Amino acid sequence: MQGNVHEHGSVASLRRRIAEAEQTNGELLAFARGHTGAAHAIHEAVLAVMEADCLDTFAAIVTRDWPALLGVDAAAFAWSADGIALAADETGVRPFEPRLVVRMAGIDRAVTIRQVDRGHPLFGKGAPAIRSEIAIRLAGARGIGLILLGEEEATSIDAPAATRLLRFLGRSASVMLERWSLN
Q1: pTM score, whole prediction
Q2: Which Gene3D superfamilies does the annotation name (predicted)?
Q3: How deeply is 146 buried, as exposed, middle or buried, from its count of CB atoms within 10 A (0-12, 13-18, 19+)?
């Protein structure tokens, strides 16, 4: 009888371990699918800005097309080069204070993901609705800046995997912005 109890305990333990392994497998599969989707979205966003032939077109793609491509609610950016700066949101491009761009782009990390009570002022009239934002530092040989992606709902983002992809997005945008003079 003792062997039978031991056998039942072993079977129950084995069933728990199988259930845990299935759950872990499901979580890994969901992560892989999500990562693949995020990588595809980032690549599509980079391909979209590669078609820009001028700064205004670049700004329109980032602020109007990227939200749909990247699955966010808003996108904005600021860029300063050669002592001149601009900012762009869904309403268009406007002159901006170069010192503010340098200060904003001075974030410690290339990508910062955070929950907020109100979005960054670069989001313009949409700032009050933003609850999660991603700040991506832009840096080139001549310029410096910041891209902001915002979501109206507070969400948790898988920071390590997302950060690598978002750094790629920022580096690609920096290279594109270096093409054009702000004069």
Answers
A1: 0.78
A2: 3.30.450.40
A3: buried
Among 152, 118, 151, 117, which Cα is nearest to 134's? 151
Q: How many Å apart are CA 64 and CA 89, to the nearest integer?
A: 8
Query: Which domains, ranges and CATH numbers included, belong to the chain?
Result: 29-177 (3.30.450.40)
- Torsion-angle region of 124 (φ positive above 0: left; ψ -120 to 50: alpha; else: beta): left
- Which pLDDT tens digit goes with each residue over 100-133? 898 888 777 889 888 999 999 999 999 999 999 9
SS in 3 state form for the chain? Answer: CHHHHHHHHHHHHHHHHHHHHHHHHHHHHHHHHHHHHHHHHHHHHHHHHHCCCCHHHHHHHHHHHHHHHHCCCEEEEEEEECCEEEEEECCEEEEECHHHHHHHCCCCCCEEEEECCCCCHHHHHHHHHCCEEEEEEEECCCEEEEEEEEECCCCCCCHHHHHHHHHHHHHHHHHHHCCCCCC
**Beta carbons of 41 and 97 less than 8 angstroms apart:** no
- The closest of 179, 142, 182 to 53, measured between CA atoms, is 179
Phi and psi angles of residue 125, each rounded to the nearest 5 degrees, phi first: -65, -15
